[in-house]
Amino acid sequence: MKTIFRSVLLAGSCLCVAGTAYAAEPLVKACAKDGQFIIGFSQANNAEPYRQHVNDELTAAAKEVPGFTLQIADGAGNVNTQTSQVDNFITQKVDILLISPFEAAPLTPAVKRAMDAGIPVIELDRKTVGDPGKDYTAFIGGDNYKIALEAGKYTAKTLLPEGGEAAVLEGLPSSTPAVERLNGFKDGVKENAKIQVVAEQAADWVPDKAQTAFSAMLQAHPDIKVLYASNDMMAAGALLAAKGAGKQVKIIGTDGLPGPAGGIEAVAKGDWAATFTYPTGAKEAIEMSKKILLDCASSVDPTVTVDTTAITAENAKQMSGK
After folding, report:
1. Residue 11: predicted pLDDT
2. Domain at 37-142+280-306, CATH class
3. 37-142+280-306 and 144-278 have identical folds
4. Residues 6+ apart with CB under 8 A from 321
5. Cβ atoms of 45 and 102 closer than 8 Å
6. Angle at 128 between CA 125 and CA 131, to 5 degrees
7. In this predicted structure, what is the pLDDT of residue 319?
8. How far is CA 108 from the centre of its chain?
9. Are 278 and 253 in contact (CB under 8 A)?
10. 225 CB contacts (<8 Å, ≥6 apart)?
11. What is the model's pLDDT at position 5?
12. What is the similarity comment for this entry (predicted)?
């Protein structure tokens, strides 16, 4: 009796069985060029200016696609609220779920439920636990570690070439960007052995907490010369603390938001030394949604990294349009 073995190979979008090629299944079976689709976006917290910036750019990008309807749910900075909203999107049977998880671990089970229900999940800016392309469809965002690494190098080479004391205001520690930005900055300043990071404190992305935390840092370490804030809102709070203490501190933000209250304007006015833009990834998310829903893609790039720009005194006025 002879046993016959067949080899099955998965290669890109082609399933090959014994030399015969079959097209792989699309990620969404109901995909169609002229279809009508609902995209649900679970936002971490609309109260944050960066989050509203993401919403605005997503809304604008989705409007350019006639068959797309975008629905945005505000997690309001609460993992239980956001989990419930994701479950509502699953019950509603949205065609794609976009999510910026407020915290990584607590939102992971909800993302798994969406994937198990056959809904592609694209994570923006923040990740849940697991790997893109496996535990969720894709991640789109900046390289948080690299952005902060560049901020650290800028500190080492330009802001404190002769050395000195620096401090860090971290975001929400249970979110992936907070951890990656903290580690990136600390690694970046290592290029200058004369720099000491004398204080680091989580301020959860919030300006009030940042002001309180940096005020305490300045009392404990009055010689701090540079403050790296993991987002622009905390940088704004740090500036108030420095002014209140009568200290001249070089402040670096992260986000590079436009507008009169944004980081670009703060650098242009000379209030901050720098900020680093964190693009929303909104256009990329809608483009990926088009590939899945309109082009019937069977796979997409699991990680799409959007580029950042350093905003310094040299280019801030040009970037702000002044």
Report:
1. 34
2. alpha beta
3. yes
4. none
5. yes
6. 100
7. 85
8. 16
9. no
10. 159, 160, 164, 165, 166, 249, 250
11. 30
12. Belongs to the bacterial solute-binding protein 2 family.
Helices and strands: H and E segment counts in the chain: 10, 15
Residue appearing with tokens 């900020």: 275
CA quadruple 73, 77, 79, 84: dihedral, nearest 10: -20
pLDDT of residue 23: 62
Residue for token pair 């901050």: 272
pLDDT under 70: residue ranges of the chain:
1-23, 321-322
Return the domain boundaries, the chain: 37-142+280-306, 144-278
What token pair was written down for 296?
């019937």
Considering only the C-alpha atoms of the chain, give the largest distance between any 2 of them, rounded to a whole number of Å.
Answer: 90
* 234, 205 Cβ separation under 8 angstroms: yes
Yes or no: say if 224 and 217 are a contact pair by the CB < 8 Å rule: yes
Q: Which of 227, 161, 232 is nearest to 200 (CA)?
A: 227
Residue 79: HSE in the Cβ half-sphere, 13 Å Cα cutoff: 14
CB 300, CB 27: distance < 8 Å: yes
Distance CA 243, CA 246 (A): 5
Q: Which residues contact 134 (CB under 8 A, 6 or more apart)?
A: 302
In three-state secondary structure terms, 300 is coil
Strand pairing of 303-305 and 96-99? unpaired
Q: How far apart are CA 193 and CA 195, in angstroms?
A: 6
pTM over 0.70: yes
The identity of residue 86, as a single letter, is V
Token pair belonging to 60: 């604008």
Name the nearest CA neighbour of 127 among 115, 113, 116, 137. Answer: 137
Query: Are the C-beta atoms of 176 and 44 separated by less than 8 Å?
Result: no
Tokens 């697991």 belong to 130
Q: Which helix (H) or strand (E) holds 243?
A: helix 232-245
- Using the structure block, give the residue that is written with the tokens 């419930």: 84
CA distances from 294 to 4, 30, 31, 124 (A): 40, 9, 6, 20
- Give CATH for domain 144-278: 3.40.50.2300
The C-alpha R_g of the chain, in whole angstroms, comes to 22
